[in-house]
Amino acid sequence: MKENVVASNEFCDITRIKFKKWDEVDFLLWYLSTKIAKLQVGWDYLYAYKDAYVVFNKTKIINNANNIGIPPELLGGVAWIEAGGKPESIKIHVYESRRMLNSKIYPTFQGKTSFGSVAMQIDVAARMLGIDPEMLTTRDQLELSNCLLEDDFNLRLAATYLRNLILYDFPGCASLYLTDEQYIMAGVRYNRGTERKLDEFRKIIANKVARETDEYDLISYGMRLLEIKPQIRKLLGI
Predict the structure, then answer these.
(1) Most buried in the list 8, 33, 115, 180, measured by CB within 10 Å?
(2) Is 161 exposed, middle or buried (0-12, 13-18, 19+ CB in 10 A)?
(3) pTM for the whole thing?
(4) How many CA atoms lie within 13 A of 147 on its CB side?
(5) What is the 3-state secondary structure (H, E, C) of 45-106?
(6) Residue ranges of the chain with pLDDT lower than 50?
């Protein structure tokens, strides 16, 4: 709706109505209750926020996933895991600190800063738009970081990134209809990147290694995605 747009830049429209971002108060409530008081209520608060994020954005999640060609529950699952991380207001300070450190030693340091409820590095977002990250000016980076705060834009790029990761390991596969292994690997790649070989992860998955081990930690993000799949489908109403 045009009446909801308050500003625009080269990459997106900035909207007035959006889901509440996880802020310093939310983080403090979670941290004090879970890390200091050791109370379950802090985790309940965080999980309720994650659930609410997915429900509020379910139409955006479903539409972007279907348009890109991945399962909506996969995009929704990644969104659920990522929502409620570092407060967004802290991220811009991280960006500025890195920008000030930018030099011959750290030529593109600030581009590694992540923004958005579904956290994404500025450099990765640029590549999803077909832009060479090294061609971004500081203004471009700041505009792109603002766009990553827009849930629809953020989810569209996250869906694109997930599809690319799926096709990295399984070229030519029907990315909308994934096997459990493909589903797990999408999460593993999202969390771990593409440095390690697929066969290494396949071996760990096949061996059903115990939790709380270094090997399981390598695939834990993908395993968590598969574990919450029924819950995400319910939240999305699919």
Answers:
(1) 115
(2) buried
(3) 0.90
(4) 21
(5) HHHHHHHHHHHHCHHHHHHHHHHHCCCHHHHHHHHHHHCCCCCHHHHHHHHHHHHHHCCCCC
(6) 104
Long-range CB contact pairs, 128-131, < 8 A, 24+: 128/157, 128/160, 128/161, 128/164, 129/11, 129/157
Angle, CA of 51, 18 and 224, to the nearest 5°: 30
| Half-sphere exposure at residue 168, Cβ-oriented, CA atoms within 13 angstroms | 19
d(CA 75, CA 111) in angstroms, rounded, equals 23
User: How far is residue 80 CA from its own chain's centroid?
Assistant: 9
DSSP strands (E only) in the chain? 5-8, 13-15, 114-115, 120-121
Distance CA(80)–CA(76), nearest Å, equals 6
Give the pair of three-digit tokens for residue 99: 């920008």
Q: Which two tokens stand for residue 20?
A: 């509440």
- In angstroms, the Cα distances linking 85 to 30, 57, 79, 195 are 11, 17, 11, 24
What backbone torsions phi and psi does residue 6 show, to the nearest 5 degrees? Answer: -105, -15
Q: Among all chains, which residue has been given the structure tokens 């319910």?
A: 234
Length of the chain measured in residues: 238
What is the tens place of the pLDDT at every residue in 89-141?
787 777 777 777 665 455 555 678 889 999 999 999 999 999 999 888 888 98
